[in-house]
Amino acid sequence: MTALFTLPPADILVGVDGSDNSRHAFLSAMTMAKEHNCSLRVIGAYSVPVIPHRHAPRISDDHHRSIGHSTQDLLEEYAAEAREAGIDASAQAIEGDAGEVLAEASRYSRLAVVGKRGRNRLASRLLGTVSGTLAARSHCPVLVIPLPDHGKGAPGTEDAEGPNAEAQQAQPGFENEIVAGIDRDSSALPVAEVAARAAELSGRRLAFVSVVPTDAGSSRGASADEHAGEYRAYADHLDEVTQAVTESGSGLVSRLQLVEGSAADVLLDASRSAALIVMGNRGRGGPAGRLLGSVSRSMLNRAGSPVLIVPNKTAQ
Which residues form the UspA domain (predicted)? Predict the structure, then answer.
């Protein structure tokens, strides 16, 4: 795909395809742009169906152009709505895969916003076509927003597997807070800094949550002392990240939470009450080019709150 971007950079990028999900994402992006005096870029991707003609696939140039023009017209309606609200907004339709187009466009923005797709098991497993691809390959943080009636307080309803009872009992509520999932990898500090900035801008309380895997330090022959040492390593790392963010002036951390269990279960449970979950896009141990880690993928599919995915390379 060759994406030709003819617009100047914009602070916030929002992907629009005419669905209810993207409409809600657009309204959220417009609210943020208005509140923080940011510019807005509305991007839509389109593809041209191939029509078989004898032995060679062909499509008329007129039909090809009409698809692009109709997509551009739709996007211009969104941009015009934003401009009426006093926002510096532009729109561009680009031919290609939606996820890849948005990932490339993210090079020129500070935040990308998309709607969450999928209400059932099949749809949620196919999420990666757009929001998953963008979250995995974006050059800036990606905010994935579910529809407002998407089971706040009931993440995982579209999948038979929800947070287990143990995670729910271990995890206190995070009512209307910004919750940052802090892992022991290179994404920890960027995630913490972005979460602190989000809390500062929104005026919300901030919680840092680190999850010690249930089997941490419990390999064959490991002693109780070794298990306790692994737990302490997570606690020390959480303290180090908190101190770094506090010293940088990025914001105040209201509280720290260190729990043992499954990271996906703990964060999914937090999404029942949190205003926003902030996390990295890849798990530990995977190659840099790997797509979304299992925890990130699970959160995008099943979280009840908006999820902000921070690329590992994002440090500002």
Answer: 12-146, 178-311
